[in-house]
Design a protein that fits this description.
Strand order of the largest sheet: 3-2-4-1-10-9-11-15
Structural class: alpha/beta
Number of helices: 18
Helix content: 25-40%
Strand content: 15-25%
Number of strands: 27
Largest sheet: 8 strands, antiparallel
Bound molecules: fructose -6-phosphate
Radius of gyration: 25 Å
Length: 601
Amino acid sequence: MCGIVGYIGNRECQEILLDGLRRLEYRGYDSAGIAVMQGERVQVRKCAGRIAQLEGLARRNPLSGKMGIGHTRWATHGEPTDLNAHPHQDVKGNIALVHNGIIENHGMLRNYLEKQGCRFVSQTDTEVIAHLIHSLYKGDMLQAIREAMGFLEGSYALAVICESEPDSLYCVRLGSPLVVGMGAGEMFLASDIPAILPHTRDMLFLEDKEIAVLRRDGVRVYDAVGAIRHPSPYHISWDAAAAEKGGYAHFMLKEMMEQPQAVQGTLSAYTGKEGLREMLPGKVERLDFIACGTAYHAGRVGAYYLRQLAGIESAAHIASEYRYCRLFPQTDAGVLAISQSGETADTLAALQKARAMGMQTAALTNTVGSTLDRSVKTTLLTYAGPEIAVASTKAYITQVETLLLLAMDQGRKNGALSGERLGDILNQLGRLPEKMEEVLKKQTPIQHYCDGHMNEKLMFFIGRGVDYALAMEAALKLKEVSYLPCEAYAAGELKHGAIALIEQGTPVFAICTQEELLEKTLSNLRETKARGAETVCICPETMEKRARQEADLVWTVPDSDPLLLPLLIMLPMQLLAYHMAVAKGRDVDKPRNLAKSVTVE
Ligand code: F6R
């Protein structure tokens, strides 16, 4: 998804902007550009393609100035071309702006502006905003932006510079994140923290409809009607190095290898001398999860934990479905939104809907200060550190871990979980990072498997109960980074249709963490083998002997409490996705068509 960076201060800004854009590359993009206030004129350099191409352009024809904005664009309206790249300008080129989000009524506004004589040069919705602001500008940019907001429908994060106001950088947001970084005698702007983290760790997060005016010596924040606001800054605890590759070939690999520490850090945050801390205030009769993608899969594991440990009803919902489905008010029910980024548009909208229905709401996120974090009273944080690779790994693992702790806390409160059992799970969690290290060390057989299977047409992942939730995540990971088509199925459901896809040699992976369901799943695996499948069973060591009697190949993880096995079993599945992507020569950290944070519906 698109990225924004901005600077105003006493330093030449071209390199600062380019560096910020490079740090946003992980979000996925197909064109990039910068605009700098050079002398009395706003000058733009932009092109389709990678940042390296933009750098080439800017080096051949450099920009000199101490205020500027930059953008990486992920095409929505119009192809990824030089002309469609941001920044966009008004007819006279007085104003340059960059935009994240989508303007839904751009067609109508474009018609209106064309009738006023505006000549459009791009196919984007963003260009409409530049002409609109220009047509409303009467010497006061703050006022022009405020008026423009009245016309714009959709979502936006905007950064605007203007020749007539060379000492101010303007920005505004609605439904798309923006963060202001506060330095000494210089101010920064970005859609994501890592873009400006090398310069400052003190950040202000803008709320919807707030306009910020950045000057060298400070920032002023106004609400939609022009009243001054005084938001408190956040101090970001992680540093720029945490968002760098640190010698690994890919962020995804680095982030997978960081999982033992992430689990340890998250456990330490929620436990102390007195044992497990309270996770959410009070107890609920029912707790549902809303999330998208991998976070939704974590929610499915969380729902299993709540039913097992707290004996309460719980389900996970896909946020984009939940926001449009008919809900029935349940005042004794809680809804927890799960999101690594805390900026996913569907998850935020689903949360608002749950709140409007009178449900108690809370959040689980990896991103302090994110829109999700700020929109609830209670946030559970995961302590995974910045996750840069598009494919979520360490955030997922810590989400699952935190949901386990949450279920334990609810079970303790409603009497479903004894103190002894709780202590036992905590003890085993304490030993988990070591076992995770052990699994992460065993990459060679997985690598070999991928080298030998990179040309498969289709793979299956099957499991029952919580193992089905794990199969869904394993399949998502594999398809998103390697583009290898795969299906996740509830093991018992396969013979109701999808088994027709099994051909000679089709790989089928069975995930088995539950002793009581082992025979059932193995019998489903046998059904696929009888139709030619090449079968693999992933299970703990205790199940290995039995699994070997049925599967062509068995991958094991160390024995552990069954509740913790999801956290171990997912590691070889992530490694499978990673090594398959490497074997197939994919752009592992930035898979095609994907974005790290999905801020549009
Ligand atoms: C897959 C992946 C996505 C995200 C989804 C939600 O690896 O990362 O499926 O899980 O886009 O994102 P967040 O958690 O930021 O709300």
